[in-house]
TrEMBL record:
Cofactor: Fe cation
Pfam families: PhyH (PF05721)
Name this protein carries in UniProt: PhyH-domain-containing protein
PANTHER family documented for this protein: ECTOINE DIOXYGENASE (PTHR20883:SF48), PHYTANOYL-COA DIOXYGENASE DOMAIN CONTAINING 1 (PTHR20883)
Organism: Rhizodiscina lignyota
GO molecular function, one term: metal ion binding
Similarity comment: family membership: Belongs to the PhyH family.
Record-linked Gene3D superfamilies: q2cbj1_9rhob like domain (2.60.120.620)
Length: 278
């Protein structure tokens, strides 16, 4: 079934840089996504696996699963869902043309897991092609300020957001702008672009939660999905695929900036600027 955006919703997206949709998925579809996300979480980790699991160091100093990337090609349910007409149709109404799946990830945000520094997404995509993207955040479980839900600065997609050497947003800009919490219930969507300033705190609740992110580019720019993951696998491979004698500094900056994945490099959980719940 198609989903038609109203003129008011399209105008809100243009103004704020993000749009929340709370009625795209049915209850049964939401349960399917929850089941699929657990299946991906439980997939084996081995050198033969084409999907890409990443670890972090949590608040207790333990290495735990942080996210899985590049799973759509290997999961029929997610492949049909993420490349299906309904999600791509919603995005086409905002972009003005058909969209292709560019990349996908599930962030697990287990209890005690870390947050993401204030940032914009575009620096992590430019190595493939300098294009604009739209991203869907689908709440697999409830996401709120107690378990590391997302916050954004309204209208920041139209601002010149400064970035530091670490590709994250500097402290003075963080403190001089209002951050809007975006609470989501299971099955609800947030859509935003590559230039929206956003962040999320650590999961300080006692409950694990998952969130699915899928990023899309305009179909006229090509199908770039496999090119992206080929580059990522070489420069910032899944945690278990890294070789002790390899230097991943370039990939670390490009793909890991502002994320809990950096904690594996430092050996301890990181607390980022702007995690005001710390």
């Amino acid at each position: 079934m198609s989903y038609q955006l109203s003129q008011e919703q399209r105008e809100s997206f243009e103004k704020d840089g993000f749009l929340v949709l709370r009625d795209v998925l049915s209850e049964s579809e939401t349960k399917d996504v929850q089941q699929w996300a657990q299946e991906v979480h439980d997939w084996p980790i081995s050198p033969e696996s084409p999907w890409m699991p990443y670890e972090e160091v949590n608040a207790s100093g333990k290495r735990v699963l942080c996210r899985t990337e590049n799973y759509a090609n290997y999961h029929d349910g997610f492949n049909g869902f993420l490349r299906g007409k309904r999600l791509r149709g919603v995005l086409a109404q905002l972009s003005g043309e058909p969209m292709n799946l560019f990349k996908e990830k599930i962030n697990y945000k287990l209890a005690g897991s870390g947050g993401f520094a204030p940032h914009i997404d575009s620096p992590a995509y430019r190595q493939i092609k300098d294009i604009k993207h739209l991203t869907i955040l689908l709440a697999v479980d409830s996401a709120n300020m107690s378990n590391g839900g997302l916050e954004a600065v309204r209208g920041s997609h139209n601002m010149k957001v400064p970035l530091g050497d670490d590709l994250c947003i500097p402290s003075d800009w963080i403190q001089s702008h209002e951050w809007t919490p975006i609470d989501l219930e299971p099955g609800q969507l947030l859509i935003f672009g590559s230039y929206l300033a956003h962040r999320s705190g650590a999961n300080r609740s006692d409950t694990d939660r998952k969130a699915l992110y899928a990023t899309y580019n305009r179909a006229s720019e090509g199908d770039l999905h496999d090119d992206y993951y080929e580059h990522r696998a070489k420069n910032w491979p899944a945690t278990h695929m890294r070789k002790p004698d390899e230097d991943y500094a370039e990939g670390q900056l490009l793909y890991g900036y502002g994320s809990p994945m950096l904690s594996v490099v430092t050996g301890k959980q990181l607390v980022f600027e702007g995690d005001v719940r710390g």
